[in-house]
């Protein structure tokens, strides 16, 4: 029945999947700037980091360890790659969740060469034993490898060539002070404004060979939530729309139609954001309501609402966190086209979802 199918079809399918994955990685790599001069935005961080790197190169020494903090998608990994590129040294990448034992970190450090840049993403999620090992490695460029267990265990000192640690974190407050203090340079990345995102969209479009009008690029930038990663993602979706349903060029009409199709509104709110606001205003009268109750109302996990939707809504001024729960602001009612209730709620009203009210 299936004799007419080529025998090598499974291999072909696997090859196609591998090629697609490789194309995605190549796409992401192509959009990343390779030097501080190409990096758009973050002027303060760029100038400070440039001084750190230039001084280290002039003294022929490895730069101080660098800690990059800020919300996801602002370019922490890109800056780590730029640091390695500016120093003309290899970049070794790992992540905090991947280092759960001191031995995991010791294995990585044992392969470090002089001048290498070690990038640890989500560094706040490293295990405590690994953190303590990293303290010594960053400060003294040596680690003690423990061989054996119990009374017969022996600590063997391992010398490590000078290297630079670049740590990235979205939650700098979770880093213990001893680890944070060992970074000689700390940078807090800020959200991008529309003009900066427009420049990023224009640069990415040029690399993709995509024709984007001034208004079309600005439309994409204005809905990107101040985040370059989101701007590049939306650009890819708009490109798909323009190629399939248009003439291949991106104007303001094509950008608006594509983003409306993907449920991204004028301010960058997506389906989840609007679901949270709608539940808060329509189902709970604007709050206050506990975060767990709100998450159940929109059919998502508490962490999803708290870490993905809530920060952006708070930044826009649509949602407020109070000791009694989450509350919708008048701006949220206006954005949804609803009439805000007049006057304060009943005196002494308890928040809905009292089980998870913030202290």
Q: Report low-confidence residues grouped into runs of 5 or more.
A: 1-24, 344-359
The whole-angstrom Rg is 25 Å
Strand content: 5-15%
* End-to-end Cα distance: 67 Å
Number of helices: 14
**Main β-sheet, in a few words?**
5 strands, parallel
Which bin fits the share of residues in helices?
Answer: 40-55%
Could you provide a short overview of the structure?
It contains 14 helices and nine strands.
Describe the protein:
The chain has 359 residues and is an alpha/beta fold. The protein has 14 helices and nine strands. The strands form three sheets. The chain has a five-stranded parallel β-sheet, with helices on one face.
Strand-helix topology:
Elements: H1 9-31, H2 43-59, E1 66-69, H3 76-87, E2 91-95, H4 102-110, E3 117-121, H5 128-140, E4 142-147, E5 154-159, E6 164-169, H6 177-180, E7 185-188, H7 194-208, H8 214-222, H9 228-245, H10 252-261, H11 271-283, H12 291-298, H13 302-316, E8 319-322, E9 325-328, H14 330-336
Parallel strand pairs: 1-6, 1-7, 2-3, 3-6
Antiparallel strand pairs: 4-5, 8-9
Helix pairs in contact: 4-5, 7-8, 7-9, 8-10, 9-10, 11-12, 12-13
Tags for this entry?
359 residues, alpha/beta, 12% strand, two-stranded antiparallel ribbon, 14 helices, single chain
């Amino acid at each position: 029945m299936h004799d007419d199918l080529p025998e090598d079809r499974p291999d072909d399918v696997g090859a196609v999947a591998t090629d697609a994955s490789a194309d995605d990685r190549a796409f992401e790599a192509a959009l990343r700037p390779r030097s501080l001069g190409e990096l758009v935005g973050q002027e303060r961080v760029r100038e400070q980091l440039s001084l750190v790197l230039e001084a280290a190169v002039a003294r022929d020494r490895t730069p101080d360890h660098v800690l990059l903090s800020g919300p996801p998608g602002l370019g922490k990994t890109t800056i780590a790659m730029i640091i390695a590129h500016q120093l003309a040294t290899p970049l070794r990448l790992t992540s905090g969740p991947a280092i759960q034992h001191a031995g995991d970190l010791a294995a990585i450090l044992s392969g470090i060469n002089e001048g290498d840049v070690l990038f640890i993403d989500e560094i706040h999620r490293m295990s405590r034993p690994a953190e303590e090992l990293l303290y010594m490695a960053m400060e003294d460029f040596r680690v003690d490898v423990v061989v054996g267990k119990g009374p017969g265990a022996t600590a063997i000192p391992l010398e490590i060539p000078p290297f630079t640690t670049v740590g990235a974190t979205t939650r700098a407050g979770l880093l213990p002070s001893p680890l944070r203090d060992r970074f000689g340079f700390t940078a807090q990345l800020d959200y991008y404004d529309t003009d900066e995102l427009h420049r990023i969209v224009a640069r990415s479009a040029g690399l993709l060979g995509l024709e984007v009008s001034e208004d079309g690029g600005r439309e994409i930038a204005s809905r990107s939530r101040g985040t370059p990663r989101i701007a590049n993602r939306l650009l890819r979706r708009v490109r798909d729309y323009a190629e399939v349903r248009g003439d291949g060029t991106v104007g303001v009409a094509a950008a608006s139609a594509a983003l409306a199709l993907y449920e991204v509104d004028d301010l960058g709110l997506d389906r989840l954001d609007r679901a949270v606001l709608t539940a808060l205003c329509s189902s709970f009268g604007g709050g206050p309501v506990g975060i767990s109750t709100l998450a159940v109302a929109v059919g998502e996990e508490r962490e999803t609402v708290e870490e993905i939707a809530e920060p952006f809504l708070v930044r826009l001024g649509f949602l407020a966190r109070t000791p009694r729960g989450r509350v919708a602001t008048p701006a949220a009612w206006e954005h949804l086209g609803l009439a805000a209730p007049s006057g304060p709620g009943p005196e002494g009203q308890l928040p809905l979802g009292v089980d998870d009210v913030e202290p």
